[in-house]
Every structure is written in structure tokens, then in C-alpha cells.
Amino acid sequence: MVRNRLKTGAAHLLYRTGLYKFIGSLNGTKNLPVVIGYHRVVEDFAASLRTSIPSMLVSRQMFERHLDWIGRRYRVVGLEELGARMEAGEQLPPRTAAITFDDGYADFYEQALPVLQRKGFPAAVFVVTGLAGTNRIPDHDRLYLLLTRRIGRRTLPIGQGMWVQGIDQMTPYQATRILIESLPSSAISQVIETLEKEDELPEADLKPFRLLDWDQLQKIKRAGVTIGSHTQSHIVLTNETAMRVTEELAGSRAELEHKLGGTFRHFVYPSGLFTMNAVKQVADAGYKFAYIGCTHRSPEYPLLTLPRTVLWERSSLNSDYAFSGSVLSCQIHHALSIGGTCRQQHSAVN
Ligand SMILES: [Zn+2]
Ligand SMILES: [Zn+2]
Asked: Which ligand sits nearest to residue 125's alpha carbon?
């Protein structure tokens, strides 16, 4: 609560004094477009909160509120236009923004797209190609669901060699995050398998996490939505072998080309995790633009390390839990993370 009050106070101060623009010049985001990321857009935030990772949710109502605020202050453009202009070395007009969605959840089609179309805003969706059109859901959602059901009942059964210090003391969110961010996907599958042996997830629980199928992806592409890649199976690039990373990057792009037709040049690093080595692999796989969750850009590949801000239901709330334009503004300018909340070792060899 105290932290939240401090954050709100700092946001007001930065916004009213215009200092957030100065911070933009310090962290290198000043002349860059504002790129926003969302995950799921839902009807009822409180109901979805019972089974979903909170920071992956925004209610349609709050989403609309964000868009209205952004629309009054920015020109919202598609990633194709943004990419073409940046590639040509053009200076983008100040106050240019783009709206993007990660993972390709089916609720994009039902909840987000109608709002975007009504407001005339272009958007982009980053697809996990190996899961699209299947009844499989991303590992982070599956793990969170299993851990939510598990924690509070007994101690966690973590399989051999998968022990993470203190995991039984963590909240389901903390445990999910640490497992996803530190283990290769083969080990995560084993953890999921172990948990599912004891507690099978009912089909109904998985339904809200279903991803767009290829028919829907074809339709949204025809409606002008940019489709980008988010790997084949949402692997965290920094936890996998170079060979697996190359396969996932190339395979995902090939599948998009095969199923949807056209060229696919945009990429988002799953879980926002990358090393400079991974950036090079993304370049080698033929992607031209990639988005990161911090402001640590690669001088060698600036267009493959474009800062983006992921928003959720509570990103723009002040300490009284009311919508605040100052808080939202500071979030999208990365002004509240000055000094750095990113703990990644981007120079590490993966
Ligand atoms: Zn993702
Ligand atoms: Zn970073």
C-alpha cells in the first residue's frame, strides 16, 4: 500500500512537471514509438482472476479506458507502418503508438477486436503457432491453474532435480514465474505431468485459455490485424539450446507463411526474456522487428530490441484504485522503472 502510494505520488509529479519526457531521454525511449502489449481481454476481471495470472488480464471496460486515453494523445498506427518507417530511418512523429497482444488468446476475437474496430485502431497479435488451433493451452496458464489448486492443500510435489529453493512458500504466481523463467520447457512439461497425475484439470477450466484457431487468425489478418510470431510453443529463448531456439524461430515463421500466406517480420520474446545471443538468432531467423519488456537495447540490433510496455487491469490505478492518466503515462514511458527493475543478464551466453 505504501509502495503504491509512493508510486502514485511519483507518477503525478513526473506527469505534471513533464519530467517523464526527460526520463525518456535518459532511458533511450524518447524518440521511440509507444508500443503497448496486452494478453487476455475479458468480460469480468474479478471472475477471471480466480484462475488466471492477474497481470495477463484486462477487463474490456478498462481496455477501452486505456484506448480512449491513448487515442486522445497519440496517433495509433499498425506495426507494418511503424516497421516500414523505422526501417527507412525516418524519425517518427512524436506521440506515435501501437497496440499489440501476446499469445493469441481466443478472447482477442470476441472481446478486443470489436472495441479496436469501433475505435478504428490497428493492432497486432503475436501467435504461438504450435498451440494455435489445438486444445492445448500455454504452459504458464496450465502451471498457474495447477499450482492455484495445489497450494494451500499440501506441499508441492516437485519432481526429481526440479527443486527450486523455497517454492513451497511462494504464491502460485511467484512459483509459476520462477519455474517458467528458470527451467527449459522439457522440465516444465515434467513438472506439469507430475502435478496432473495428482490432480487432473477439468476441460471447463482450460476453456478460457484457448487460443485463436487458424480460421480466426485468417479472418483477423484479412481485417488488417498484423500477425507476428511468439515461437512455436512459447519457449523462453534463454533456457533452451541454440538448436531448439533456431527450430522454434524458423518453424513458427514457416508455419505462419504456410497457413496464412504473406511475410511475417515481427516477433515478441516469450516472457520478455532475451540475451544478445538470442537477439542474433532472431535476426538470423529472418525477423526484422522484435519487442522487449525493458529498455536494454542492442546497439547492433536496435530494431530487434524495441521497448514495449505490457499493461493489465491495474497498471493505471492510483493508490485509491481509481484510473489515473498520470500513472498510465508514466507506465508507458517506462518512467517508473528508472534505475531499472530488469534483472536480466542480457550479455549472458545462452
Ligand atoms: Zn507470451
Ligand atoms: Zn533488461
From this structure: 1
